[in-house]
Amino acid sequence: MCSILYATFMTLQYERTMLSTLFIMLSGAVLCFILLLVLLSLCRTGAPGVKAWCVANGLSMIAFTLYAFGRQLPPVLSYELANGACLGSVAAVLVGYRHFFGYPLRLGLTSASVLCALAGVTVYHYVYPSFMLRTLIVSAFYATCCIAIGLTVFRARAAWTSRYAYLFSGTMAFVVAFGHAARGVAQAVLPSAPASLLEPSAWSLTALSASTFVMPVLTLGPLMIVHSKMIAKYEYAANRDFLTGALSRRAFWEAAAREIERARRVGRGLTLLTIDVDHFKRINDTYGHAEGDEVLKDMVLAVERRMRSIDYFGRIGGEEFAVLMPDTSLEGAAAAAERLRIGLAEDRASVQPQGHAAGARDYTLSMGVAELRMSDSFHDLMQRADAALYRAKERGRNQVVCEAALEEALA
C-alpha cells in the first residue's frame, strides 16, 4: 500500500513538474516573441545591430518552444536543434552589440564557436552521455558571450548617449555571465545537482525559471540603448543648425538666458561675440549657393577649433553667427576674436583650395564684441554686439570692433 501511495505521489510530482516546465518554457517563448515584435518596429530606424537582436529573440523563441515539447519531439529536435538555437541566440546578441558600436563582426569566428559548442553538446548526448558536461558547455558558452557583451559596452564608453542605459546593459550582461558560471560550477560540484532539468526538484524549476529571463534581460539593454540614441539624435536635430552643426537660434537663446542668470548670480563677466562672413552674398552670386554653404561649414569648424568647452556657438541667421563667452571680460573676448581672425588667415595660407573653390574660400570675418551689463536683457546685449559688428563692416571689414571702441567713436 505504501509503495502504491509513494508511486502515485511521485507520478503526481512528475506530472506537476512537467506542467510547470511546459508553462515556464512557453512563457519564455512568449516573452521572446513580444520582444521580437518590439525590435521589428525599430528596424526602420536603421540603428545597427537591431536585425541581429531580432534574430537572437527568434532563435530563443524557437529554443524555448522545442524545450517545452521536448518529450513529444525526436531527440535531434529537443536537444541538438534546441541547444543550437539557444547557443546561436546569445551569439547573435553579441554580434548585434559589436555592430551597434562599430566593431568588427567576426561572423566566421562566431559561427565556428557556436558549431563547436553544439558539437560538444551532441557528443556528450549520444557518445558519452553526460548532463553535467552538456550543462558545462552551454553555461561556459553563455558566460563567455555575456562577458564579451559587457566588455563591448564598457569599451565604447566614449559613444554613450545615456549613462543609465549603457550601464544597465553592460552590468546585466555580467550578471547573466555570473549566473551561468555559478550554474556550471554548481552542476559540477554539488552532489544534489539534478541529472536532468525535468527532475521534480526546486533546483530544476529555479534553473528553468531563471533561463526564461536571460534573453529578455539581454534584449532590454539594446532596446534602452537604441531609444537613448534616438532621443540624442532628435535632441541634436532640434538644437543644432542642420547645415553647419552650430547651435540653432532657439537653443542659443535658451543657453544665453541660463548664462545671463548665472552671471548675475555669481557676479562674473559674460561677453557676446557676433561674427559675419564678409561679402557672403558676393560669394553666393559668384560661386553658387553650394560653395557658399561650404564656406559657412568651413568657418564653423575654424571657430569651434578655437573655442573653449564652456563657450556657446550658434547660428543667428544667414551668414551671421555668435559666440557667448561665460566668465570672460570684454578685453579677453576681443583678444580671442582677434586670435580667431588671424588664425583663419593662417588656415587659408596653409591649405589653399584648388580650382573653382579657391576664390570662395578666401573669405574674411567681421566681428563685434559686447559685455553684459547688470541691467541688460539678452536682446540689449545682442543689439550692442551687432552695432559693433556693423561698425567693423563700415571700417572696411576683416576686423574686430568692441562696444567700448564704438562708444568712443560716437562720442
UniProtKB/TrEMBL annotation:
The keyword NAD does not apply. PROSITE patterns: GGDEF. It comes from Noviherbaspirillum suwonense. CDD domains: GGDEF. The lineage of its organism: Bacteria, Pseudomonadati, Pseudomonadota, Betaproteobacteria, Burkholderiales. This is diguanylate cyclase. It catalyses: 2 GTP = 3',3'-c-di-GMP + 2 diphosphate. The keyword Membrane applies. Keywords: Membrane, Transmembrane, Transmembrane helix. Residues 268-405 form the GGDEF domain. InterPro entries: Diguanylate_Cyclase (IPR050469), GGDEF_dom (IPR000160), Nucleotide_cyclase (IPR029787), Rev_trsase/Diguanyl_cyclase (IPR043128). Its EC number is 2.7.7.65. The chain crosses the membrane at residues 20-40, 52-70, 76-95, 107-127, 133-152, 164-182, 202-226.
